[in-house]
Amino acid sequence: MNQTVDIRELNALIEQKSSFVDMITIGMDKAIVGQKHLVESLLIGLLADGHILLEGVPGLAKTMAIKTLSSLVQAKFSRIQFTPDLLPADVIGTMIYSQKSESFSVKKGPIFANFILADEINRAPAKVQSALLEAMQERQVTIGEETFKLDEPFLVMATQNPIEQEGTYPLPEAQMDRFMMKVVIGYPQKEEEGRIVRMNIGGERPLIQPVLKSSEIVEARNVVRQVYMDEKIERYIVDIVFATRFPQEYGLESLKNMISYGGSPRASINLALAARAYAFIKHRGYVIPEDVRTVAHDVLRHRIGLSYEAEANNLTSDEIVSEILNAVQVP
């Protein structure tokens, strides 16, 4: 009975603390037509303190989405266009020699912001990618002999274009694992596209006012950690991730030769964190299995290695995740 009271209290707290989510969603809707999934994914990344990799053809409002989000939260926004000639110093900063003072001073790079848009991350060579990924993981940057902590909140949204393969440097699997979610964005619906055209030919850009301070995001993250997750849900998450490693143990013999490697413990952690953040977005103080199922594709699609056999059969990691979700018993 005590637990029921606790859950009620927690629900009331979450409902009160998550009220800003609606304000952010309304603000995003002013600038972006449709793309609900993209907006939700950005909020999950922001609340669960995870970075997001976006895949979609050009012109699907990826840049607009993160720009609008940084306008709604009083935070610093930075956009880095990745190109083959980019250097790590162009991202993190460098030491500059001043003749006047006869000494070196630090010139900070665009990484020193709250929201980073790493546009077309697969266009830059491995050296630059690893400089960005180190900052994402360690939340600090070393320039010369000095180490600088990055400001909170710190969210990297990297984009990659799925259609161009020439002149690209695909992210290695281990580096892909650093991203909490890989979100695939599709084209808008016909009605939505009509609204997009009307909005843009009208020439009126909606004025986006900040509705939140960055310190409130840090506070909200602490509340997200209080969202209740039952042991049954934890076991469900572990079962889903284990099914990506040993599908035969879950009655999925057909997938055994299709998967070259499954999700790491990082997959389980991120699945739990994303499910909690999703419950918070839905103004709920506890996680239900549906929350886990909703975020599972985004959290797992880049963490499953496909074998040559899977590629020969045109099997995608999304289809594998769907099969696993259908096979693993829901608590």
Would you kindly provide a written description of the structure presented here, covering whatever features stand out?
By secondary structure, this protein is of the alpha/beta class. The chain has two domains: 2-199 and 212-219, Rossmann fold, CATH 3.40.50; 227-327, Magnesium chelatase subunit I, C-Terminal domain (Helicase, Ruva Protein, domain 3, Orthogonal Bundle), CATH 1.10.8. Helices cover 48% and strands 16% of the residues. The chain contains 14 helices and 13 strands. The protein has helices at residues 2-17, 19-31, 36-48, 62-72, 88-92, 126-138, 173-176, 190-201, 214-224, 231-245, 265-281, 289-300, 308-312, 317-327, and strands spanning 52-55, 73-74, 77-81, 93-98, 103-108, 115-119, 140-143, 146-149, 155-160, 181-184, 212-213, 259-261, 305-306. A five-stranded parallel beta sheet has the order 3-6-9-1-10. Strands 2-11 form a two-stranded parallel ribbon. The protein has a two-stranded antiparallel sheet with strand order 4-5. Helix 2 (19-31) crosses helix 4 (62-72) and helix 12 (289-300) runs antiparallel to helix 14 (317-327). The radius of gyration is 21 Å and the shape is globular. The two termini are 21 Å apart. The model has no long low-confidence stretch (mean pLDDT 86).
